[in-house]
């Protein structure tokens, strides 16, 4: 059975939105990616690091969802990475209040032996150096490597980022970051330039405006599902990546046609994520709900036009 | 053969974008709507008003495209409505430099007798009072009435706007205006509230982020085609409305399924509009190009997922 390896942060988040606020809850990129992928029934592992303050029941939660935690290093005398932020009324912009890296400064990713042959790898938003170290440890040369990044690494470690980009198959990046990385305002041109940097597939995430998938001359678009209420957007991008990667792991088909389906699965998963704080909604998601949401995506986007030239 | 009636401004525009600037060129809502619809081969008329400075060859241009101009009133001693604006580098925002209403203050719409039975009416962005006067003159009770409006009328003549909304079947409105009209940030909730104001169908235009069609519990989304370059967005919304209305006129089918196709036609026409200044691109558009663009929309959005519950 094909396996999914996930490298990313495991953190505490404290979130404030117009609808309420949380104390320290489970956050970081890896939990969103892994819990989302787990809904597709794949065998996954998280490579990450936490402090002694990280609760046992969070780790148990991963295991209950068939997520291998043997490579989540626990440093007893250190604190877990902590982020807090406040969303504006439009829910599209937020202010970061706190970023305490804590134990994250000691992270040295070690891939568990049984996942060195994983067929899909998600390199969550981390330093390009750490992302490269993970690729070094993979023994499956045909593994699909998916990389997520953000403007912080473009501003601070651009050379390293460009080096690791040469080694990945898929990049997921948001629209503003794609523009920053290339200096191009057109996303079509930006995607082409990023493609030239290495990744064969470029996924540009536009938040509430959906996601674009580019591959050479092919382009596919999936909207975000229009929702009555967006409760908390935190982790939606990672949840998208988890659904995307989970579907590709499960089907083990990396063609453009199948990537389109993976984008739809990612979008469906992200549409659940924003309904509750943190990854809470992922935990209570059943297959019937996922089926209905995928059906809603079809209804939202599919049309019949007879074209005869 | 079913007919399309278009009421709107006929104007001069002077446009400045990062790519260049124009002198006074053909503008206003009605030319974009009519020229777009004309590409679908429908029989249309414009109801509008211009000054003595409006060139004969612009009027001839309408006639060449099978657009009836008998109800474009010419006031010899007055000047044509004039708008000028400058787009910012992102092409999504613009500053209005000049708005000279000129002859527009004397507008009293008179529907030509042979178009009082039109099957589709587009009420372009105009005062709600003038829009109402047009509806009063229609003899076809089952005509589909499509209304476009903007924030100016919400700010200045909201009561009149709410009155005319009760009499229309379809509203086309942009996302910010939908939020303003309803006080709701969620477009799903905003569409429902607008639906309660009268229109059975609500089309929310999101510019480069596409368009949503709502009808009771149904929702359909069409993206804007991702383009290498947006040269001039002026008139894209009206061109969308023209393609939408033109398709509905031609097919004479006002079901939700057919409205979805109309939204795709509207989006395809708008994607051409932005390639040149003003309505220039519409004039040189052939059916092969339209066919290819519709094909590109299918490729962009259509996917196959087997869903078995």
Report on this structure.
Two copies of one chain form a homodimer. Chain A is an alpha/beta fold. Chain A has one domain: UDP-N-acetylmuramoyl-L-alanine:D-glutamate ligase. In chain A, 37% of the residues lie in helices and 25% in strands. Chain A is built from eleven helices and 14 strands. In chain A, the strands form two sheets. A nine-stranded mixed β-sheet of chain A has the order 6-5-1-9-10-11-12-13-14, sandwiched between helices. In chain A, strands 2, 3, 4, 7 and 8 form a five-stranded mixed β-sheet that branches. In chain A, a hairpin with a 2-residue loop joins strand 13 and strand 14. In chain A, helix 3 packs parallel to helix 5, helix 8 runs antiparallel to helix 9 and helix 9 crosses helix 11. Chain A is globular. The interface between A and B is large, with 41 and 41 residues.
Q: What topology emerges from the helices and strands here?
A:
Two copies of one chain form a homodimer.
Chain A: E1 3-7, E2 11-17, E3 20-21, E4 25-27, H1 29-38, E5 43-51, H2 56-64, E6 67-75, E7 82-87, E8 94-100, E9 120-123, H3 128-137, E10 144-148, H4 151-156, H5 158-165, E11 170-174, H6 175-182, H7 187-197, E12 201-205, E13 211-215, E14 218-222, H8 236-251, H9 256-273, H10 280-283, H11 287-301
Helix pairs in contact in A: 1-8, 3-5, 6-7, 8-9, 9-11
């Amino acid at each position: 059975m094909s396996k999914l390896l996930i490298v990313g942060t495991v953190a505490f988040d404290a979130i404030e939105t117009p609808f309420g606020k949380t104390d320290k809850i489970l956050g970081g990129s890896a939990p969103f990616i892994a819990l989302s992928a787990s809904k597709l029934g794949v065998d996954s592992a998280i490579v990450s690091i936490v402090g002694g303050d990280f609760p046992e029941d969070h780790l148990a939660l991963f295991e209950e969802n068939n997520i291998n935690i043997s490579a989540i290093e626990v440093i007893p005398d250190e604190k877990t990475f902590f982020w807090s932020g406040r969303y504006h009324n439009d829910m599209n912009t937020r202010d970061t209040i706190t970023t305490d890296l804590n134990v994250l400064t000691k992270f040295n990713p070690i891939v568990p032996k049984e996942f060195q042959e994983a067929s899909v790898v998600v390199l969550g938003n981390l330093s390009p150096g750490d992302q490269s170290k993970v690729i070094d440890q993979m023994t499956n040369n045909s593994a699909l490597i998916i990389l997520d990044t953000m403007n912080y690494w473009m501003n601070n470690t651009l050379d390293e980022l460009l080096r690791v980009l040469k080694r990945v198959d898929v990049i997921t990046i948001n629209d503003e970051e794609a523009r920053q990385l290339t200096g191009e305002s057109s996303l079509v041109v930006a995607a082409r330039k990023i493609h030239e940097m290495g990744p064969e597939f470029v996924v540009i995430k536009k938040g509430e405006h959906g996601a674009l998938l580019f591959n050479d001359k092919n382009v596919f678009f999936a909207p975000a599902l229009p929702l009555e209420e967006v409760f908390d957007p935190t982790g939606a991008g990672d949840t998208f990546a988890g659904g995307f990667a989970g579907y590709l792991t499960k089907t083990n088909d990396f063609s453009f046609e199948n990537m389109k389906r993976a984008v739809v699965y990612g979008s469906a998963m992200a549409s659940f994520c924003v309904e509750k704080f943190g990854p809470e909604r992922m935990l209570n998601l059943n297959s019937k709900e996922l089926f209905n949401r995928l059906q809603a995506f079809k209804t939202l986007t599919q049309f019949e036009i007879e074209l005869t030239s």
